[in-house]
Design a protein that fits this description.
By secondary structure, the protein is an alpha/beta fold. It is built from nine helices and eight strands. Helix 3 links the parallel strand 3 and strand 4. It starts with a helix and ends with a helix. The mean pLDDT is 87.
């Protein structure tokens, strides 16, 4: 789930999954999520727009959850910008500033971006002269994906990097991951998303001269898809159609992995 497409698919319309993640990260097991929106785009005609991975509301507060593999995509000023754009779009015209709800921008990162070897980082403003907390209602949290400790948060991070749904620690997440990775309906839903990623990768690869690497990635993804579908005992013809490989190639992969 550390990759955007699967994370957004798993979280889409799944209040229970988002609720689980927020409860663990915020250490608040009474938190109740009311609404979830994925891939919400806020355009800006003059300046930089923003697309939130997952937006959720819970207990009158607003949460932006972002997954990020690239350290440069989770720099402090990105968190600041997301926070400002979140605030700018949740206070309706005519409302008093006191009605601005508390907001949380949460980055779940592959690496320890802040490099302090902590499992989680809570960032808040303070008054320098008194060292007191400045309660403006905005919060930024970084979750270190390198943390794989035997704790609720560590187990959650294990799940974010787990390729096999059977090994996922939390049942709610395991069920959703299995649906999108191992069922016909889920794979059909993911196919256009994966294609879009490939297309973008090809375009960038041409510019950067790494076409061979992209093609290798595409081939590996096809093989993974074939193996997953054959394990589900799907018909070879169906597997060939989904993976866009020939029937002979599917059979070859199946035999190599003792699935045929």
């Amino acid at each position: 789930m550390i990759d955007d497409p699967l994370f957004n698919a798993v979280m889409n319309s799944s209040i229970k999954c988002v609720e689980l993640i927020l409860r663990i990260i915020l250490d608040n097991h009474s938190l109740k999520v009311e609404k979830v929106i994925t891939q919400y785009t806020v355009p800006n005609m003059l300046f930089h727009g923003v697309r939130f991975d997952v937006l959720a509301t819970a207990n009158g507060k607003v949460y932006d959850i972002e997954v990020q593999r690239d350290d440069s995509g989770a720099i402090p000023r990105r968190a600041r910008y997301n926070s400002s754009m979140l605030d700018a779009n949740i206070l309706r015209a005519g409302k008093n500033y006191n009605e601005l709800p508390e907001s949380y921008v949460i980055f779940i990162t592959e690496n320890d971006v802040l490099r302090k070897e902590k499992p989680i980082y809570h960032i808040a403003r303070k008054i320098d002269e008194t060292d007191e907390y400045f309660d403006d209602g905005s919060h930024i949290i970084y979750v270190n994906g390198e943390n794989r400790a035997d704790t609720e948060l560590g187990l959650l991070m294990q799940d974010f990097f787990c390729a096999d749904s059977a090994a996922v620690n939390y049942d709610i997440l395991a069920e959703r991951i299995r649906y999108f990775k191992e069922t016909k309906e889920g794979l059909s839903f993911m196919s256009p998303i994966v294609k879009e990623i490939y297309d973008k990768g090809i375009e960038q690869g041409i510019e950067q001269g790494i076409e061979r690497g992209i093609e290798q990635g595409r081939e590996e993804m096809r093989i993974e898809t074939v193996i997953d579908l054959l394990r589900e005992n799907q018909p070879i013809e169906f597997v060939a159609k989904i993976s866009k490989l020939s029937v002979d190639k599917v059979k070859e992969i199946g035999k190599m992995n003792a699935l045929i």
